[in-house]
Amino acid sequence: MAQLGGQGQPIIIMPEGSSRVLGRDAQRMNILAGKVLAETVRTTLGPKGMDKMLVDGLGDIVVTNDGVTILKEMDIEHPAAKMLVEVAKTQEDEVGDGTTTAVIIAGELLKKAENLLDQDIHPTIVAMGYRQAAEKAQEILNVIAIDADDRDTLLKVAMTAMTGKGTEKAREPLAELVVGAVKQVEDNGEIDKDHIKLEKKDGATIDDSKLVNGVIIDKERVHPGMPKKVEDAKIALLNSAIEVKETEVDAEIRITDPAQMQAFIEQEEQMIRDMVAKIEDAGANVLFCQKGIDDLAQHYLAKAGIMAVRRIKKSDMEKLARATGATVVTNIEDLSYDDMGDAGSVAEKRISGEEMIFVEECKDPKSVTLLIRGSTEHVVDEIERAVEDAIGVVAATVEDGKVVAGGGAAEIAIAKGLKEYAETISGREQLAVSAFAEALEVVPKTLAENAGQDSIDALVDLRAAHEKSLYMGLDVFKGEVTDMYRAGVIEPHRVKKQAIQSAAEAAEMILRIDDVIASSGTKEPDMGDMGGMGGMPPMM
Length: 540
Prior knowledge:
alpha+beta; GroEL; 3 domains; seven-stranded mixed beta sheet; three-stranded antiparallel beta sheet
């Protein structure tokens, strides 16, 4: 509501029940939301980070220390907090790792900005300073990055990404599988992560995970009379149903004689037989069909010794085509020998009580499958998340060919460079650049805290060590400052680049908000409970 100049007559401009938070109150509320969200995931960072148990309204449990998974599973309503969740999602989509880092940097930037606002520095000045600092940070990052994409580096990058997660005890064999998978699907220096299929099954140990140079399909043969294993397979991929087609218009067939009925049935059978004969003539001994296969067709295919699988997902058909070299055919009449794909072996195997089709020993497949095993469903889910992170960082390293030191080394180096840069700036932006530098130090501080060490001592030791080398980071297992490159703790350049950029942009956007207008249908953001963040049942 607003009042008309001095006349006392109110003008209603928003519907009843709408809420509005103005000026410093809006800024404080948004900053507080960002800080609380960052604090929530902060304890999960690093090799000694703890896990979170998330319970949804149905009682389903997720146990993880993967930042983006935690934020996705939490029932977050506060609008500013949702903006930070977007930071984590973007980080996950672009790189696959560093989601927790991105969120805690954003939270720390907001925390430092609050101190500047309390000193009566205008939010746009802070935002401009942050923008300058983010650009300079990228320049420093490019300077400290090292060119490397050899296999040994890729293994170290994968192991660094998996350290501190459920995969840690088997990170070396898993890193070998991940690097093998990424290298196999590489196409002219580019990697599409969708071409690495992850199949997960519980009931075994992590060490039983394996890389299949081909595709695993979570289906079974359509007929028990079909062969269970086919060596030297010629694979047909069909996108149409093997059954008599229904007419597209309403049709009525008048039969006046039982013989005509018999002829009609025989003709339908003949059509099915002709379809199967066409598949056989093309030289196929394995058939993957995206649609249905008629019962009669199953019988004839089994008699012909052809292994057939139906109702294959479109994405799996594309993976089969890339792995075997087969062409997906829409019309069965067009099927020929040239459309066939090759695989050394196609077999139905029983994994954890379920039948699965393994298409293996493909020649130079451009689509592969990682079969992930673990003792229980929750363990397998967490291993899958860690492997996805590892695939993301290895792919980023192969594509960019640049890595940086881990263990907080990159953040300390950038912070040191930013503090020197701040001294060259005149005006109040200098304070914002210095605040940005201090905010980046939250990463090594958090690594130390989560390892039970004194974060101040760790930070002092790191700053002193960086006077001699840019690659000194925190070894949380030994509790000392070490050369991270020699220790094999390395991360892709892109992880840090994206985390700093996303965090800075999100913090800038939140700082520039001085008015939160919520419509009557929206739950009013509350300072007390952070607008319903959490989404977990109350603790008894």
